[in-house]
Design brief:
By secondary structure, this protein is of the alpha+beta class. It has helices at about 5-10, 25-35, 50-55, 80-90, 100-110, 110-125, 130-150, and strands at about 15-20, 40-45, 65-70, 75. The longest helix has 22 residues, at about 130-150.
Amino acid sequence: MSNNEEQYLMTEKIMLYGSPTCPMVSPVRNTLDRANVAYDYVDIYLNPDGRKRVLEINNGNASVPTLSFPDGSTLTEPNEAILIDRLESMGHTVRARTLIDRVQVIFEFPVIFIVGVVMLAVGIYNGELTQIVVGAIILALRLLFVLKRRAGR
């Protein structure tokens, strides 16, 4: 690969197609963030064109996360090692995961929000301060990581 081709692949944005209910999206986003890669996230539930593109890529299946790279290649539901190999082949360096990265991935799982709400509600209903505090902490951490993500890494 020439220097011009490698520079193009490093500067053009990757398209990441996902959904808020898919637990695999957060680890992929975390890996892209650790590589400091420019990417656009498309929620296939909110974007009909994005959903159509995912269906085209995946032979009629709405499989997410799906990544579309500047060279036209794609990856669907990649594990971390495959994604890191692909990013490194494009010239990116992926930094090692930190404890904060691991916690962020956990708190971005959709089920964590439900757990926090249930803990808070049950605690309020039963008058259990411990459950109220745990539910509130879970929801606060989830909100913190969601806001961090929206602020642009």
